[in-house]
């Protein structure tokens, strides 16, 4: 059924604003502004520590004096600058940028590719005057020109006394591939934020744990958090340099199922994580969890150790060793690493002695033997299902950039009486095109 004039007018009235909106979204200037905004937000997420505790931000971004006069911990938390990449406004920028790329691809790149794939013959001499490279000869023919062009990689089309040739059509496909790869990268980033999670655990050597301490998680991350397997820290140890500094710390980890069966085992260290079912466990920190102590001939028991506040002057862990059951008397034990000397003080703060694992000292008339220090491994657990998508996008981006550097060259020729017209143009590599045309003209003149 044919539409009435009034219906056509209504449709045109609705389509016109939509076309204007598409034109605005596809504007290159808007895409550049969005890209700069995303870059600035990414820089802020790199400069400002992400995913730290409230105490960390209160200590490093106080209200008086505020950084730059305005950036306090309250402003930082309100704006979401402590987790930039998962904020609604950063995701909105990504979506808007992706929309702009998509609109530009369909309104500009696909039409440009379609125009490049079509061929149009020049049948009038004056048409060659518009070309950047053109020549008029009193010799030459299409039959002579065709093999010359084909040897140089041109695809030739002929219609009566007119000729059209082209090569490098892949150069027109390159920008589309670049846009598609950027859309894939954006999609991977958004998918990673929506489905990924970040957790941290501090686990004593010999203990097992399930991922519970979630710092950040996307709305769809529940399926990524491990439920049917856990991790056992078989052993944690530190290697020191000859000067006593920490060289590297290691964690021997086992992935176990609910029945305690080992599914995977690996020793991890900094920059060498354990990966299992899309979850990655990184070695990031360490601590002293406890100390094994024996008083006179008592059974060996374990005392927890806590990290002391040293006002940024190093790491020290301490515990109270009771020498009476009611804890009224005892001594303090301090340690700064897993291999160094431990210091023992009495209740008055007087230094009683210095011991190492396996040594004994006396506190309040009680023989205190230090059997062992138990270290804790600090693990960062992360799942980001968007990473494979992002890597695929970056790989495709490199291919698209290389394709975009291929020149798209076009050549036209016309036999008109005793005159022969030849011309061409290219979107880049103008000098190479000129040399190529000069070589063809020389060969035509000598034929």
UniProtKB/TrEMBL annotation:
Which Gene Ontology BP annotations are present? cytochrome complex assembly
Lipid biosynthesis as a keyword of this entry, yes or no, is no
Transmembrane helix keyword on record? yes
State the InterPro entries in the record: Cyt_c_bgen_Ccs1/CcsB/ResB (IPR023494), ResB-like_domain (IPR007816)
Spans through the membrane: 20-43, 88-107, 176-199
- Compartment annotation: Cellular thylakoid membrane; Membrane
Where is the secretion signal located?
none
> What UniProt keywords apply to this chain's record, in alphabetical order?
Cytochrome c-type biogenesis, Membrane, Thylakoid, Transmembrane, Transmembrane helix
Ranges for domain ResB-like: 28-300, 371-437
User: How is it placed in the membrane, per its record?
Assistant: Multi-pass membrane protein
GO cellular component entries: plasma membrane-derived thylakoid membrane
Q: What protein family does this chain belong to? A: Belongs to the Ccs1/CcsB family.
Q: What does this protein do?
A: Required during biogenesis of c-type cytochromes (cytochrome c6 and cytochrome f) at the step of heme attachment.
The record's subunit annotation is: May interact with CcsA.
PANTHER family (UniProt xref): CYTOCHROME C BIOGENESIS PROTEIN CCS1, CHLOROPLASTIC (PTHR31566)
What is the name listed in the Swiss-Prot or TrEMBL entry for this protein? Cytochrome c biogenesis protein CcsB
Q: List the lineage, top down.
A: Bacteria, Bacillati, Cyanobacteriota, Cyanophyceae, Oscillatoriophycideae
Q: Which gene produces this protein? A: ccsB
């Amino acid at each position: 059924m044919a539409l009435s004039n009034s219906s056509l007018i209504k449709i045109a009235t609705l389509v016109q604003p939509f076309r204007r909106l598409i034109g605005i979204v596809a504007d290159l200037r808007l895409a550049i502004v969005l890209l700069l905004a995303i870059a600035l937000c990414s820089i802020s997420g790199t400069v400002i520590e992400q995913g730290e505790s409230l105490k960390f931000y209160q200590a490093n971004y106080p209200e008086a004096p505020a950084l730059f006069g305005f950036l306090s911990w309250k402003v930082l938390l309100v704006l979401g600058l402590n987790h930039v990449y998962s904020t609604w406004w950063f995701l909105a920028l990504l979506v808007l940028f992706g929309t702009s790329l998509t609109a530009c691809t369909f309104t500009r790149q696909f039409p440009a590719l379609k125009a490049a794939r079509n061929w149009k013959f020049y049948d009038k001499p004056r048409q060659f005057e518009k070309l950047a490279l053109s020549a008029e000869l009193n010799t030459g023919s299409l039959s002579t020109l065709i093999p010359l062009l084909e040897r140089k990689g041109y695809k030739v089309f002929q219609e009566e006394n007119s000729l059209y040739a082209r090569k490098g059509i892949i150069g027109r496909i390159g920008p589309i591939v670049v846009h598609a790869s950027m859309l894939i990268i954006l999609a991977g980033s958004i998918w990673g934020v929506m489905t990924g999670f970040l957790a941290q655990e501090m686990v004593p050597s010999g203990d097992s744990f399930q991922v519970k301490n979630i710092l950040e998680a996307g709305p769809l991350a529940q399926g990524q958090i491990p439920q049917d397997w856990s991790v056992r820290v078989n052993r944690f140890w530190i290697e020191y340099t000859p000067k006593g500094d920490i060289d590297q710390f290691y964690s021997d980890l086992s992935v176990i199922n609910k029945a305690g069966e080992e599914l995977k085992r690996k020793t991890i260290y900094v920059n060498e994580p354990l990966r299992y079912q899309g979850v990655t466990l990184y070695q990031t920190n360490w601590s002293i969890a406890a100390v094994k102590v024996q008083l006179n001939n008592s059974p060996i028991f374990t005392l927890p150790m806590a990290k002391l506040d040293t006002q940024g002057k190093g790491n020290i862990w301490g515990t109270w060793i009771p020498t009476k059951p009611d804890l009224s008397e005892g001594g303090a034990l301090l340690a700064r690493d897993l291999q160094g000397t431990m210091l023992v003080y009495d209740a008055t703060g007087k230094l009683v002695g210095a011991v190492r694992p396996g040594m004994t000292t006396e506190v309040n008339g009680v023989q205190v033997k230090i059997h062992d220090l138990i270290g804790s491994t600090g693990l960062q657990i992360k799942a980001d299902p968007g990473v494979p998508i992002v890597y695929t996008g970056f790989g495709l981006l490199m291919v698209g950039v290389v394709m975009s550097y291929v020149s798209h060259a076009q050549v036209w020729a016309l036999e008109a009486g005793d005159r022969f017209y030849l011309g061409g143009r290219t979107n880049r590599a103008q000098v190479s095109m000129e040399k190529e045309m000069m070589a063809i003209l020389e060969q035509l003149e000598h034929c």
